[in-house]
Amino acid sequence: MAEVILLKTRGLKRHFGGLKAVDGVDFTLRKGEIRAIIGPNGAGKSTFVSLLSGRIPPSEGTVEFDGQDVTALPAHRRVRLGIAYTFQITNIYPSMSVLENVAVAAQSRLRPSFLRKGASETEIEDAARAALAAVGLDDRLDEVAGVLAYGHQRLLEVAMGLALEPKLLILDEPTQGLSDSEIANFIEVVKRVAQSSTVLLIEHNMHVVMSLADRITVLERGRLLAEGSPAEIMNDKAVQAAYLGEPA
Amino acid sequence: MTIPNKKLFALCLVVLALLFMAQFVLSNYLVLALTRILILAIFAMGYNMLMGYTGLLSLGHAMFFAAGLYAAGLANYYGGVSLPIAFVIGILGGGVLAFVIGLLALRTQTVSFMIVTLMFAQVAYLLTLYFSNVTGGDQGLTLPTASRSFSLFGLAVDLTSPMVRFNIALTLFAVVLIGLFAVTQGPLGRLFVAVRENINRTEMLGFDTYRIRLLAFTISGAISGLAGALYGLMFGFIGSSFAEFRSSIEVLLFTLVGGPGTLLGPLVGTGVMTMLIDRLSGMTSAYLIVVGVLLIVINLWFPKGILGTIRDRWVPWLK
Amino acid sequence: MDIAPYLLLATLEGLVQASVLMLTALGLSLVFGVMRVVNVAHGEFYMLGAVGAWLCATLIPGHPAISFAVALIVAPLIVGLLAALADRAILQRINYNPEATIVSTIGISYIIQQLTLMTFGPDARAVDPPFYYNIRFPWFGYSSYKFFIIGVAVALVATLWLLMKHSKMGLLMRATQYDRETALNFGIPVGRVYSAVFAFGAMMAAVAGVLVVPNSQAHYLMGHDPLLMSFIVVIVGGLGSIPGTIAAAVLIGLSDGLLSVFFSPTLAKIASTLLVALVLVFKPQGLFGKAGRI
Ligand SMILES: Nc1ncnc2c1ncn2[C@@H]1O[C@H](COP(=O)(O)OP(=O)(O)OP(=O)(O)O)[C@@H](O)[C@H]1O
Ligand SMILES: [Mg+2]
Q1: What is the pLDDT of residues C182-191, one digit of tens each?
Q2: In this structure, which CATH number among 1.10.3470.10, 3.40.1650.10, 2.60.40.420, 1.10.540.10 belongs to the domain B26-243?
Q3: What is the mean pLDDT of each successive set of 10 residues along chain A, which is 248 residues long?
Q4: Which UniProt keywords apply (chain C) (predicted)?
Q5: Which among B197, B204, B208 has the least Cβ separation from residue A53?
Q6: pTM score, two decimals?
Q7: Which of residues 97-126 of C touch B (CB under 8 A)?
Q8: Which protein residues are within 6 Å of ligand 1, measured from CB?
Q9: How far apart, in whole angstroms, are the C-alpha atoms of residue B51 and residue A200?
Q10: Residues in CB range of C72: below 8 A, 6 or more apart
């Protein structure tokens, strides 16, 4: 795999009042890899990826994406540069149909620009269907999103990310609430996606992490505790201590 | 180009055809009433695009109606500008004012947004009173007799004829209806609904939601201005009462009754409400009580309005 | 004659206005602070207080002080009852949805206004002050009743302050304001607290209405201006903040008194309305520090 750096943070911090949710993280992500971020509850994982996506502004530090400093860019501009973010808490359009939910995302990618005229409604819907087929929701196109089962809403969320065809897909605990067979399907989906884009995955399910991740980053109390291959992380004393709650 | 939601499109054409036929059946009095309904329905359609589709509840839309009314009326009254051009000036007046107010008001949300739009509209209303030597204040101005007719492309148009007025109103109603069909049933309309349903999600899908809302606000203001200009020029009168808070509430009520977020809801709501108000006009003071009771009752038991309820129960494409 | 007497007079008038405004605005602010809703019918509760005072004055014979004292107690009670009823019948059912609440309270205000017009009539009616006594200044005499207004307002606000800080009701209110869900979990009867707060806010407006009648007149449309002014005060002072509201009421009451000496009332209204809109846009936490955003 080519050693091209896709994303890099320097001294990234985010404080909520006195609480240091993210506390000076230097982080590098290579193009094409699948990276898992793990860490105990409240470690700052969601906050960290929110800083990457621009959903929350940092207190300090910089974010560089694809060779460009994006720290000052608002979230929607970062999405256009290719950072897609799926929420930890399901965040969809409840009264729209499944197809329409993903169509909004597809429309974002196919929006008119100087080089291209706006896509037709048919093209938008085709793109949305393709993304839904990838997660296996293509038999529920016309169902109202708000009444889907929780697991299906998670998949819908992922499909919205896919429809953006991002350079970097950030998934925040995507398998939470999925059944075993849905998880198996999900792993296949991510493997396919990873052929064309980089994936940053927050995950508590170690089976998912081990099946997917090229490398693992461990966060604890807002700080970067360890980073390495899955095998290295499994054998890391500090990581074991953090997970077992003992001092390192 | 393919037409989305063909059933709704067909329904719109049927409604337009029925409205056209109405002039051969109805009495002169009812044709006049229908003319007013059509113009106010244009106003309500503009309001609905913002409130119903985009989910932004403005309490100050009277200011955009009045902006169109005054821009067109004053241009004609003082500038002697011909009626068609005055009409275009009115649309621009509504649109430009909406753009400027939108830039400011859209920095706020929900309740703040309601209050801010209300306050700006109140300022606009007070300005029409303060400059009453120009605007005529609440006495208003009657446009000169010369402005009761005009010629367009060599065609003489006489605005004192009820039939002529009706057909002009119907034509513009049709243009706005079809225009809004194109906007609301296509990708742009989906974006408006996306903003209404979940603004954060829409932002995280790569859309500048401030711009989308500003676009909706401006279109909405321009359509309201169009309705105002049309009203002022067709009936030859401009007055500050159109800028009152009550006008903002009326257009809200029309939209609520008809069904927010349905294309034909504003027409239904305006029709039902104007008819009701006409019936009650003998008891002037009772009229506001009815408005008050309806505002409460709709909120309590009927929040989707007439067409919205029909859509949710039986006809999903009615949107 | 030099300008000093004018300024003194304007200041006195400003203080009277500020006191009435303080009461009205605090009612609005309290309701917003605890319930997070905006009550557009607030001005109508003020008007009902004034009309109630007139009603007492016409029904109760004898010295005007007697009917005034009765009005000061009875009118707010009736208005409070009405408000609690409206809360139960309407606001509670729409679950205090902020937007639906505004639309509903607009409806309530129309109903109250028109019912008053149909019963009380379209004319403005005066009420005798409870006592006549002019305080002599070197340049002019000044009605002692106006000082009484200031005194009552200050006393009531101080009482409110103590109640909020030290009574059980105040504690319940603050708990509910702080976090509705948690309050529910702790067994606080949030529904009843809301009704009480809504009623209490309306009563403050009604008291202001009673106080103001002998000074001006009762009229079915008189609620408009106090509503607008209260909005201005509450927004400038920071929504839901009691100290901010008091400070803003004094500031705006005084400056309004002074401004109207020099400018046309319409222009003053245009300027203040515009100011408020801009404050909401650019400084939604109000001009004085932090408070709830809407
Ligand atoms: N908006 C906020 N305001 C205040 N504190 C916050 C906010 N968002 C997160 N926090 C706090 O920051 C810390 C990190 O939260 P974060 O959600 O990033 O953790 P996490 O690692 O994603 O946890 P989990 O595994 O439970 O999802 C937590 O203590 C949380 O309470
Ligand atoms: Mg998290």
Answers
A1: 887 777 888 8
A2: 1.10.3470.10
A3: 82 92 94 93 93 94 94 95 89 93 94 71 91 90 91 90 94 88 89 92 92 93 91 83 58
A4: Amino-acid transport, Cell membrane, Membrane, Transmembrane, Transmembrane helix, Transport
A5: B204
A6: 0.90
A7: 98-100, 102-104, 106-111, 113-115, 117-118
A8: A 16, 19, 21, 39, 41-47, 88
A9: 38
A10: C53, C207, C210, C211
